[in-house]
Amino acid sequence: EFRRFSLERSKPGKFEEFYGLLQHVHKIPNVDVLVGYTDIHGDLLPINNDDNYHKAVSTANPLLRIFIQRKEDADYSAFGTDTMTRKKNVLSNVLRPDNHKKKPHIVISMPQDFRPVSSIIDVDILPETHRRVRLYKYGTDKPLGFYIRDGSSVRVTPHGLEKVPGIFISRLVPGGLAQSTGLLAVNDEVLEVNGIEVSGKSLDQVTDMMIANSRNLIITVRPANQRNNVVRNSRTSGSSGQSTESSLPSSTPNILGSLLQGEEESDEEDIIIEDSGEPQQIPKAAPTSESIESLSQIELLHESTQNGFLPSTEMNSNHSAGSISMEYEGPDPGRKSLEEDGTIITL
Amino acid sequence: LSQTVEHGFPHQPSALGYSPFLRLMAIGTRSGAIKLYGAPGVEFMGLHEENNTVMQIHFIPDQCQLVTLLDDNSLHLWSLKQHGGASELREEHRFTLKGPPGSPPSATQITAVLPHSSREVLYLGTESGNIFVVEVPSFRVLEDRSITSEAVLQRIPEDNCNRRSCELVEALREHPKNPDQILIGYSRGLIVLWDLQNNKVTHHFLGSQQLENLYWQRDGSKFISCHYDGSYTQWPVSSDNRQPEPLENTVPYGPFPCKAISKIYWQTTKNGLPYIIFQGGMPRASYGDRHSISVIHGSQQTAFDFTSRVIDFFIIFSSEPAAEFDDPSAMVVLAEEELVVIDLKTTGWPAVHPPYLASLHCSAITCSHHVSNIPLKLWERIISAGSKQNIHYSTMPWPIDGGTNIAPDPPQRDLLLTGHEDGTVRFWDASGVCLHLLYKLSTVRVFLTDADPNDNMNTLGEDEWPPLRKVGTFDPYSDDPRLGIQKIYLCKYSGYLAVAGTAGQVLVMELNDEDAEHVVDHAEADLLQDQEGYRWKGHEKLKTRDGPVRFEAGFQPFVLVQCQPPAVVTSLALHSEWKLVAFGTSHGFGLFDHQQKRLVFVKCTLHPSDQLALEGPLSRVKSLKKSLRQSFRRIRRSRVSSRKRRGGGGNASEVQEANAKFDQDALQEMELAPVQRKIEARSAEDSFTGFVRTLYFADTFLRDSSRHCPSLWAGTNGGTVYAFCLRVPPAERRMDEPVRAEQAKEIQLMHRAPVVGILVLDGRSTPLPEPLEVAHDLSKSPDMQGSHQLLVVSEEQFKVFTLPKVSSKLKLKLTALEGCRVRKVTVANFGSCKTDDYNENDLAVLTNLGDIQIISLPFLKLQIRYPCIRKEDVSGIASCVFTKYGQGFYLISPSEFERFSLSTKWLVEPRCIVDMPEVTSNNHVHNKSGVENAARKSSPGDCGEDERKSGRLMEHALLNDEKVLKEIQSTLEGGR
Hints:
Shape of chain B: elongated
Oligomer: heterodimer
Number of helices of chain A: 10
Shape of chain A: elongated
Number of strands of chain B: 64
Largest interface: A-B, 50 and 42 residues
Number of helices of chain B: 10
């Protein structure tokens, strides 16, 4: 179906409104769809949030051509660079989706449908010699897969160089999460665990801290190999660049600490089985703990299947109102931007 | 946090001292501690900075001062001084004897110390044979008064002696009547009487045997020497004969070679027959391994056979110089593992029950349980049961009674129950400073064990000679490790006691004031249920006795539940009102109705992949231990031959050096291959996830918010919490209808850390009271109006959930933030020391780092944190037990509990006073001052004794009055 309608270029509104409008004009109110447009280079690009929606509207010259696909039939391979140079192919795929069933493609999901396994975070607030790595253990069967040991490191102090005890990564298990990220290496010195400095703590304490945080582990390391450090001023990251103006390197890495409370809420949700019924996630009781309920749903799905449970339908309906968003951050926009900045998602 | 007092027996005691003047006893240890004990409650403790072994302790005559000699050859002067109304033990001076430059260390190595009765000087005998004189308290060496071996040899005919005769001073003894004469005994057998006024030898005595020790007879006319070959010799001292011959030379356990007699007393009595008391001297071949002290009085002779090496001993006798005879009343023996006091006045020489220094470890402690504020009736019944066990003890009042206890009376009666490896439970009075054994319960009688009843070391009659008599209670050799007690729960209101052990046995007992013979009901709980394909490779369950068993008065078992597989019981809960007992092992948990004697249900918690839990890994280690037991008994200490200081000291230092070297090597090795720790999230498949860590009964809202019901909660090692809804029939139909249980909830904590505590808070956020607490008007009824909350404590987190619909409300993540884990947790009630009407409940938490944290309820805010136990002290941390009012105990050695207090209101610590005698003039006349001192001393001592006597009388009256007993019994039964 082809529809033509007008939008006010100066006030395009929000993506959700636009999405609603599309569903309305096509009379498909309850169908999940993917929305795409062709940019000036002829690439088919997705519209799925306010940012790229606004970007798309701004590129309209004067017409904005939008492609809509039913989500379950979507051919994600259609999106991306050079897609429109193969326009014919794309259009045929888009318009006749049954076409690709004969020729199965490797399906690559939309970014938000990916589950991150690790990320480098807080690049802008850490010294360049440090790296803060977040490992997302949930939902994967991969073991975290690393070992730590005692050792000694050299610090520059007012009294000159001093040898101080430190904690180091001693081994990466092949195929483990830690190794597969490529962000951690043997002999990297562990400086912090989830925002808490490890100096003065014993190996056993640090082990316990890491295991206690294992479902959302954030380790700050000083990499043994300092040649691959992110050089902050020549950043070439493909992130949205929304907060490139964010503050200059601060020497207080503990900023993270303030973020943890909220973030941590997402790292685990206990499960209850009532009267030998279906296992359910234990909800939050008091509104006082303003946490991010929505964050945990996906996690829960993963978690439950991993544990051999089936999530109850009740729970699904409960949460269907909440956006099934792949954001793992809290609702605080400031935090989100801080975190997104410099994020490298490794797949 | 204050660490207030150490209970129990000092670890590795090394020296003993006694002041007949102060009537105080001092014990030194290998770690440099010195502890003084007098009347019950009178205790002082000091610690030498060096942490070196205390070799000797000597009280300065008629002073509140004592001198210690450490194994680094340093001397330390301690004194008791009054400060703020109480006496304190303080180190005043320290001193190391220095020889002339270039002299060998042996020149100044002190072997004997004699504090002179003038109180002004110490005579220090050395390895070189020279005797140095130092002033006290200044420790100034008086060189002109030294007694050199050359000076001694001048007066002795050369054909009898050579230079070597004067090597090593073994003993220094002041003449009992003439302070100007001292007896010097050299190691090779030469003994001289030295005149201090004229600086010369007045007599010399040529002993042919290597000398061990000397003892003056009271009148100074004779002295005794004892020797390495097991002989002792009596020597006359008369003015006319300068080289006397021995009056008597005896080898008491001859004629075959004997071991050394290392110390001897010769005590005179009115009836003329002396008491000859000596340590050692046993026939070397057959009894060389015994630790004995023999007492000979006329035709009576007993060789007291101690359970461990004798460190030292002393005799309490009439110390009044005016008295004509010694008239010994008691013998106090410090053995390596216990203190034994023998009443020498009562025929049969029975032992005296010590009010302190109890050997907590007479069988290794396996668990402890504290019950605060025991109702008087239960207290009296326990004391009464205990007194029936103690009839073989002497009734003599405790003979070491110096000082006055001025601590306020304990605020309440507290019981500490310790479970032991040999299947016994000991009940200790933990109300005050003296941890005193009230009653000992043995569970062994219920079972058939391999223990051979004839295997008794105390077989009198079989061996007539030597007349050995075993004394003491220390017996660390468990007959059957399966008997070990692992969990204890006592309901102080009903007198029900549940104990559970190593082989899955759970016993429920009731207090009975009479002996009784009955059959113990026996049930089995198969915790594996339908799980198939598992094989338990651990120990077998204990065999039970068929038919009725005779039990002595006290706690008598009436129900035995045996878990199958017979794994160690890891958690236990008893609800005395509902008459239910719950128990858990590494396989699951069960609930037993001890009223109807029926198993209500079992729940298997085992994960199918958990093989370790099935095999019972503990079993192998234990059986090895058992098999070693017999051989150990035989070879124990058999190699201890010469305890000569030279040899002993040398060996010890060599061993220490070797150990140090080994440690260093081990350390280096560790550095080469550093310890690694695996970082991995926990999963359901980890080992021992099914291990039941905690069980809890609660009357709460489990299913809906309108009806509360009894419930049972269980928490596992894998972070699972199970809640069972119970239906307990009302009292009138209690025997007619079965108790029913139905699983209502199962909570899986996603962090999967072991659940160590479960607690329900009522509508006022107060923890639910204990069973029967409300019925006894000792607690407000719980609030059933407001909504209840569930607190789950895992090793890593504290979480509060709402009830009955479980939603998470609050949490505190301890491990994620601090890297420490919860080891022990309890609810403690803290009162204000300023006002009586304020008190609050908090969680007292001990972490694996040895810190104690106080966490508020219900908001889970960390209030305060104290370092308490060294984090390396794993057994100390594991042994910690909290009381309900903010105190606690933990083992600082196998035999000692340290008591600590977190509360400002409840503090139990020694506070006592030792009267300072006025220092008489320097022209001190021995006899006169002695009489004065004795007179002065008698007043506080007597009054203390009177008080004690009256207390004892009261107790006696209470327990012997049938009416009182019946009343106690009827009230208790009425309460049930």
